[in-house]
From TrEMBL:
This is HIG1 domain-containing protein. InterPro entries: Hypoxia_induced_domain, RCF1. Signal peptide: none annotated. Pfam families: HIG_1_N. Keywords: Membrane, Mitochondrion, Transmembrane, Transmembrane helix. GO terms for cellular component: mitochondrial membrane. Residues 1-87 form the HIG1 domain. It comes from Triparma columacea. The chain crosses the membrane at residues 24-43, 55-75.
């Protein structure tokens, strides 16, 4: 039975925690989106060669991001299904006053 007084982790808190755990994944995503938007702008401006360069950069950035994700998975031992934590462990983790 779950504890009705346990604090739920907000979306912002989860995003910050994930960014601290795996900082290169969101950075890679941002770089990929940057290449994509730059490629679209070059295409709109009629610069076909520049657009093609940006799309190639996007593919490389996307590949690097996937490689980093696989690297984190390998580093963490491919824990796709981690052991479920107890309510006490979860509350201690979330409600820890020293947590940033």
């Amino acid at each position: 039975m779950s504890n009705p007084y346990s604090k739920q982790e907000t979306v912002g808190e989860k995003a910050v925690r994930k960014f601290k755990d795996q900082p290169f994944v969101p950075i890679g995503c941002a770089v990929t989106v940057g290449f994509l938007l730059s490629g679209f702008k070059a295409f709109r401006d009629g610069k076909a060669a520049r657009s093609q360069q940006m799309m190639r950069g996007r593919v490389m950035a996307q590949g690097a991001t996937v490689a980093v994700m696989l690297g984190y998975a390998a580093y963490n031992g491919f824990k796709f299904f981690p052991e479920p934590e107890t309510d006490e462990q979860r509350n201690a983790r979330i409600l820890d006053p020293n947590r940033r």
